[in-house]
């Protein structure tokens, strides 16, 4: 039986940092977690655990992604382990967002696409090899879904050109990746997108005003909702985008 492991990238701020704590509480100590960081400086609240493995990774730097994947191969040999959950949450919203076509700056568009679209694509390239194949015998684990899940974080498109462009492209990437997984892994692995709602993080700080209190989440609340949706997905929901309520987000 192939043993599961979890990938979380990034892991030091906002939802991802809360999600790391949630994973350590919600999954058995036997399941290792590979968490990525961009700098050696960690927040004082960063957890310590024997099953937590840290690697440096910057989604704008493919060699660092390749190096992190090589480390994963050492820690979790593919003949005995498989990537069961890939929770990939890189994202950037450059401010002020362009509300008019006249405000577009080429360098901002390129930077947004590098982080929000190309970064996740490179993660797929180097880490998808760890997902289970059709013939992989997955060891059952009650705290995890029966199939592997690759989940990307996204927000619903708004009237912000660079951000909307990057996230629409990511939606297409997720769907295309899931089609490939359906061929290689059948029902053993799926790919989906996820919309967490408006969360009190640095990324959304300028947009909290006007959001109802019951729809403005703390990172801890957002992490719990993400985990609940993730663990309740089934293979019929593959290739789509789901929100914090478990409802499909239209294309």
From TrEMBL:
Q: Name one GO cellular component term.
A: cytoplasm
Q: Which InterPro entries match?
A: Fungal_SecMetab_SDRs (IPR051468), NAD(P)-bd_dom_sf (IPR036291), SDR_fam (IPR002347)
Q: Which GO terms describe its molecular function?
A: oxidoreductase activity
Look up the domain of life of the source: Eukaryota
Extract the PANTHER family matched here.
NAD(P)-BINDING ROSSMANN-FOLD SUPERFAMILY PROTEIN (PTHR43544:SF12), SHORT-CHAIN DEHYDROGENASE/REDUCTASE (PTHR43544)
Q: Which family does it belong to?
A: Belongs to the short-chain dehydrogenases/reductases (SDR) family.
**The protein, known as:** NAD(P)-binding protein
Organism expressing this protein natively: Apiosordaria backusii
């Amino acid at each position: 039986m192939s043993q599961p492991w979890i990938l979380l990238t990034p892991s030091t701020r906002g939802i991802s940092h809360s999600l790391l704590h949630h994973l350590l509480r919600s999954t058995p100590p036997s399941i290792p977690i590979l968490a990525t960081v961009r700098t050696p400086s960690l927040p004082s609240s960063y957890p310590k655990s024997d099953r937590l493995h840290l690697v440096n990774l910057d989604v704008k730097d493919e060699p660092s992604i390749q190096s992190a994947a090589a480390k994963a191969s050492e820690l979790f040999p593919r003949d005995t382990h498989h990537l069961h959950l890939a929770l990939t949450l890189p994202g950037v919203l450059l401010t002020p967002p362009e509300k008019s076509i006249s405000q577009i700056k080429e360098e901002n568009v390129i930077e947004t696409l590098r982080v929000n679209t190309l970064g996740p694509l490179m993660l797929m390239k180097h880490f998808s090899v760890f997902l289970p194949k059709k013939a992989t015998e997955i060891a059952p684990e009650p705290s995890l879904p029966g199939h592997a899940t690759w989940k990307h974080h996204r927000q619903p498109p708004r009237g912000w050109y660079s951000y909307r462009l990057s996230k629409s492209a990511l939606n297409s990437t997720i769907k295309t990746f899931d089609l490939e997984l359906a061929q290689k892994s059948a029902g053993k692995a799926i790919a989906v997108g996820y919309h967490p709602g408006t969360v009190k993080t640095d990324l959304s700080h300028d947009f909290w005003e006007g959001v109802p209190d019951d729809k403005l989440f703390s990172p801890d609340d957002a992490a719990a909702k993400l985990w609940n949706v993730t663990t309740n997905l089934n293979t019929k929901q593959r290739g789509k985008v789901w929100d914090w309520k478990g409802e499909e987000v239209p294309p």
